[in-house]
Amino acid sequence: MRQAGRSLPEYRALRERHSFFDLAGTPELCAEVTLQPVRRHGVDAAVLFADIMSPVLGMGVDVELVEGVGPVVGKPIAAAADVERLVVGETEEWGAPILEAVRLVRAELEPERALVGFCGGPFTVAGYLVEGKPSRDFVRTKSLMYREPAVWHALMGRLTDHFARYVAALAAAGADAIQLFDSWAGVLSPQDYVEFVAPYSARVLEAAGVPTIHFGTGTTERLLEEMARAGGDAIGVDWRIPLDVAWQVVGEERAIQGNLEPAALLGPWDRVEAAAQDVLARAGGRPGHIFNLGHGVLPQTDPDVLTRLAALVRDYRPSA
Hints:
The chain is an alpha/beta fold and 320 residues long. The chain has one domain: TIM Barrel (Alpha-Beta Barrel), CATH 3.20.20. 50% of the residues lie in helices and 13% in strands. It contains 16 helices and 9 strands. It has helices spanning 9-15, 20-25, 27-41, 54-57, 80-84, 91-94, 96-108, 122-131, 139-147, 149-173, 190-196, 198-207, 221-230, 243-250, 269-283, 303-315, and strands spanning 45-47, 63-66, 70-73, 114-120, 177-182, 212-216, 234-236, 255-260, 289-293. Strands 1-4-5-6-7-8-9 form a 7-stranded parallel β-sheet. Helix 14 (243-250) links the parallel strand 7 and strand 8 (255-260). Helix 10 runs parallel beside helix 12 (198-207). It is globular, with a radius of gyration of 19 Å.
């Protein structure tokens, strides 16, 4: 899962000298931070260092990443005029540094290691744009959906057009797969997801042109089923649902990613080991399982535990 580098001292050393968006917007630094967890932990893929709000910077949105809060938007979206001001541009222009970072990472990675690009789901990003900052209940967002559906669909359409170009450009630059992070999809009912979100996520996933991973958190079985319908060659699941149950929901023919509880890595090793082996046992050695956490790495995680976990997964063999 993304953010694996946040717990590394080598990453923190860079962050002391550079802001997040400076790192993400400078190709050489972005490539370095992307590769740090691969070098340290020996994992099978690099995840591009970026933020789900990175693309909206190219739409003319003023975003600040506030420590301990998250993305804060200078002027939240509240009306049709605000949507009209969002620029849908060519990724090769506004996103040139990101695409160059992709090329640098792909050139340095061994052929057998994948580079995963990622993009925020249109709903999750729209939620930040409407709320102005992270929210627990997304009341302003849901109010816009229900009271001003035309404005909502215009916003989602514009974000989708922008994101579709972005993921296609990432793939053209060398990303082997794209992960769509709909981190807040779990605040929706399945019915609202189908009406207000699914068509837009489907368009972004279809635009990638490479294998895709569709991920959300807090998803009930019914919502997870609808996310799978929307698309994704693999479906990412968080730790709130057992992996084998989730796999039944999304369909055995689909790959699945997940789903160790990130906070488990803060406990003693025997607990980490037992939790990881439970995930692996639920996968049962079936093809199509991408072992991963159920969300991002917590910054206070001991990097040595991550390295040890990666080794455990590589060496695991299902019981006969």
